[in-house]
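Protocol check, entry for the methods section draft. Step 1: assemble the input record (protein sequence plus ligand SMILES). Step 2: submit for complex structure prediction. Step 3: store the structure tokens unaltered in the notebook. Ligand used here: coenzyme A. Step 1 record:
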Amino acid sequence: MVNLFGIKVGSYLYYERCNSEQLSDQPIDNSVKVVTNFEQLKDNKLGIQQNIMENLLQNNSDLFVCFEGDVPLGMMWGHSGSCYVRGPGIPIIQGKDSVYWFWIFTLPEARGKNIFKRLKNAFFTHYKDSRCFTALVEPSNSIMRSEMDKIGFKETKQYYYVKLSNTALIIEQSCRTKKINFHIEMGNQHNLVLI
Ligand SMILES: CC(C)(COP(=O)(O)OP(=O)(O)OC[C@H]1O[C@@H](n2cnc3c(N)ncnc32)[C@H](O)[C@@H]1OP(=O)(O)O)[C@@H](O)C(=O)NCCC(=O)NCCS
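Step 3, stored output:
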């Protein structure tokens, strides 16, 4: 993403995995917890804001955290149903049986120690009855793109956005047909859960 005098310009790849093949059904590693209370995030090095966390947890989102002892080292979130991704201004419109996967993060000092892998297994076991999974990944994020590929996600669209304040021009290109659609989003105009 580039920010030029307050105008944000960037791109995201939209990933989907919609089929019946189960991704994971393993016992959840006991270092991973589904966190429901801000107090569990000791020192909160993950940088989660309490009001945002509470709002999401009340609105069909789940937070998965991997701990070493009681210290959180990494996280990922899932949201069932539609939501509005406020950074680029992209609405994700989907049914309640589809899960948007977001805020995937391992603390820099804990990377390369299977934190993501343990969280991912817990995540897909937790959502094993969901029909579809979606995610946005920046095209430059080669580590995550390779992980998405390994898990069986497909790049179905590329989004380009130009955003000033809360108004975004969204250009959507199908990866298969290359067909382009444009739309303007005036903030969270569909009144969706904010991510
Ligand atoms: C992407 C990220 C979550 C990976 O977390 P992690 O806990 O270090 O990952 P793990 O140790 O569980 O490794 C998972 C896989 O990624 C690969 N990987 C991890 N770091 C890598 C690196 N620097 N280069 C290449 N591959 C890497 C591992 O080899 C492993 O693959 P394998 O299962 O085939 O062995 C972490 O690098 C991160 O937080 N990055 C910044 C935030 C981000 O990009 N989030 C995703 C936004 S969509």
